[in-house]
Structures are given as structure tokens and as C-alpha cells.
Specification:
With 57 residues, the protein is an all-alpha fold. The chain has two helices and no strands.
Length: 57
């Protein structure tokens, strides 16, 4: 069972993406299953970079 803080974090992450117009990403965040802390060997070392549209880096 997920803790309250994990649910809260996912909810506000989805809200942030929705405010930026990324509705699909927001839905994915709310739909995804919680992950365990074990590293996936296929994606180890590959960092995914997420950004909102129009964000300057």
C-alpha cells in the first residue's frame, strides 16, 4: 500500500504537468503503478529528462 506522501507527490506532479499543458503526461503519472526501488538493468545509467513546453534550459 502506498503511503499518503507518495500519493500526494504523484498528485502534485500530475497537477504541475497539467498546468503546463502536458495533459497526457499528467494522466500517465496518475495511471502508473508505483515502482520498487530495484534498478532496472535495461535503463540503468540512462537518465530521462522531462520538461514542460516552453521551459528554457
Amino acid at each position: 500500500m502506498k503511503s499518503f506522501s507518495e500519493k500526494w507527490d504523484r498528485l502534485f506532479s500530475a497537477i504541475t504537468f497539467a498546468e503546463a499543458g502536458e495533459f497526457g503526461t499528467a494522466r500517465e503519472i496518475l495511471r502508473e503503478k508505483p515502482h520498487d526501488n530495484r534498478r532496472d538493468t535495461k535503463t540503468a545509467g540512462k537518465a530521462e529528462r522531462l520538461s514542460a513546453p516552453g521551459a528554457k534550459r
